Amino acid sequence: MKALIIGSSGFIGSHLIAELKANGYEVVCCDLKETEDTVAMDIMNPEMIRSVLEKHQSDVIINMAGQANVGLSWKKPQLTVQLNTIGLINILETVHVVNPKIRVIAVGSSDEYGHLKEIGVNVTEDIPVKPITPYAISKQAQELFAQLYVRSYGMDICMIRLFNLGGPGQAKGYIISDFSSGIAEVEAGKKEYMSVGNLESARDFTHVKDACKAFRLIAEKGLSGEVYNISSGVTHKAQEVLDKLVRMATVDVKVVQDPARMRPSDTPVVCGNHDKLTAHTGWQPELGLDQILADALDYWREKV
Asked: Does the pTM exceed 0.90?
């Protein structure tokens, strides 16, 4: 099997490359900047996409390129839609011409579900999506286009809705990386304390390595036209995540709640249901919260 990963230099990319290569795949890495191991590709340039696809003919394309920052999507909604929605359309149009039998995996987000309220305790793929941010709308739009290409052209496309991930390499801006980096900075003497916000909301967390195994199994066994949640199916409160990390610290960590961060959660609990993914591919999460936190903290200790 030959896989082409678009947007390979991000958080998930390095782990996905390792997962695929460990299972016998030939991997072609694509990103904006060309390096010794990476082919240059701009998803806003259809001619460049076609050139890469014709040269590196693959069995599966996994698209992770785009704009993933929710906050930035409010400031730059046009850019977000261009990269996340139009970018995928460019890829699908090119695949349709070059080889419509290539399996394409479009990566979306649990943000597409919107405010879940009481149904957040068991989020299945058939729950109506109600995106409420430009980012979430752009991801829902790319999913609708993917389904359109399946119905209209018989193309082989699977769609993913990713829930919370954690592990080594994740940038700040997410609960586990924010807590881990904060503790690493206190350990290193760069900060006297770490500040936190609301600790009552509960979310499920999947190790990035488990998520990458899910990507591979969807590439191999997923059904065309289907949407798959990638989630752990187990929730943990932010307070529990913080307490575990504080216990892992090598020094006493002072934690201060910042009133400016104390925003109430519209959905106190979000727990993704991965039953369909498990039924279709056999996937199960293997690395629990403790491993996620240990790996994230070690990464930030090195980085700090």
From this structure: yes
